[in-house]
Amino acid sequence: MGTTQDDGPKITRRQLLGGAAALSLGSTSGCVQRIRSILNRDSPSAVSLSVTAPPADADRMATLLARHLVENLEAVGVNATLNVLPETELYREVLLNGNFELFVAQMPPMEDPQALSALLHSVYASEPGWQNPYHYADIGLDELLARQRAESGDQRRQVVAETLDHVCQTQPFTTVAFPDEIRAARTDNFRGWERHELQDPLSYLTLDRAPAVSQTDQLPLKLAVADSRMSQNLNPLSVEYRQMNPVTDLLYDPLVRRIDGELIPWLAADYEFRDSNTLRVSLRPGLRWHDGTSLTANDAAFTYRFLADTSLGKITQTVPAPRFQAWSRLVSDAHAVDDTTVELTIPDTSQEVAKQALTVPLFPEHIWRELSDPADIQGIEGSNNITNAIIYANTDAVGSGPLVVESVSSGEEVVLRPFEDHFLQRGAGLFEEIPAAFAGQPAFDRLQLIMLPSNETAVNQVAQGDVDATATSVDPREPVIRRIVDASGVSQFTERSHSPYQIGFNTGTTPFSNPYFRRLVARLVDKQYVADEIFEGYGSPAANPFSKTRWNPDSLAFGPEDPVVPFMGTDGELDVETARAAFRERGFEFDENDTLIIR
User: Which helix (DSSP H) or strand (DSSP E) does residue 520 occupy?
Assistant: First the structure.
């Protein structure tokens, strides 16, 4: 018999938020879930799904969002299970092995629509990493992604609007909400936390010592980190360790940096377009790697060849780097003209987009060329198409950035010190295009990143004066925020994250190969509720990764509800009968037990 609306289960706010504490690393493993999916079905055609998410102690908001989705899937008649994995294992399963049905996590920073090319272009669907992890293929979208790359100005904005609309209509992933990035920072040792986005680790270079502090004595900058992964791996290419770059951005410099939304020449002294396809870059003089080796145009040219194929031709199938492809793939050829000049070929690309190819970090050829051999590592399937470069821990990282590794203690601490040969050390005023606050000797003599087990512990350490600030975003629970507000000498800094939370679908598997099914699943999530309750008001619901930016068209603005996939319920509670009716309207069926089935 069918279930009436009054009899249908309702997922209450208290049930959702109260359940987070029970979600830990002891939850279902991926292997057990795959067995369950095969053996524990109500009928051969019953829909059984696994939602993969990190544990609550690593990302409480992702876990609660996943639980919200799982409970509403179950309410509508889907046999759904929450599969909790440690973050490193989660990203390895999703991004390297492709073993998932749905996953909940934050996206990489979305700062320009070209980033969508790596996320969604079908040419990347078989590659590991953030290259189309959804295994999505859509000819129409491929054409739009190619067009936006070739346009500039208002014409590009129009194509981007069409692209975003296409993504929203087909839902290869569901953008749920942007969290706020929250930091706690003391002002008794260092000032200037508000000068630049704290999401950009280069902001630490712009700090000043507080007036009451000696301007000559040694003074470390101590940062609390509620994510021990950065003490286990400093490889910019390792996607399972590196969603954001709180350390590697300080160790590896690009030719051009994005600072406060602007592209600023960095290792590049200048660059110019020789013609519509050729970009010539001149390096600053006297650049060096952390080991004292000269950084030359050969290293820059090598970087683009290496990111395109980390095997450098040693494997028949190319092995692209699992990060930075949105930008590195703009370059079809790179060669050194002389020691300080590199020339890049960038076909079918507007100058507006082409110059963003310069934002990838440079890699020293004398180190990374030796890492191009095939890797064999437990836990990564098909590792014959993975190179050592992708799995190398790199804890003795040699970059060219403003800080250099002094020591690494896994699970405990990463210590960096200023790189004396960095071009910024030559002093303020020498580089007109770079804000003066970045130049010269940093206000600290050491940067200590101290690994702590939780956000609460990190905030307590700041409140007690044991560390200067949190380097990772703080969980916005009221007791944690109250601890910041009540602590003497501590300020709270809040910024909108560039990395929205998403629900990613494996579109290469049934039923997610069906766009109508993806849209219906998206409608089981109350995005406003997620922002208000799960994010506790520190966030905003979103229809796509560029909501509330200049790229978002008015038609996709998030109003009282999502403009394309509105929630089928109110205040976080699903209207079960409305949801089931929506599934039936699209041709999906339910059996006599109100279980969703697919024929």
Answer: helix 515-522
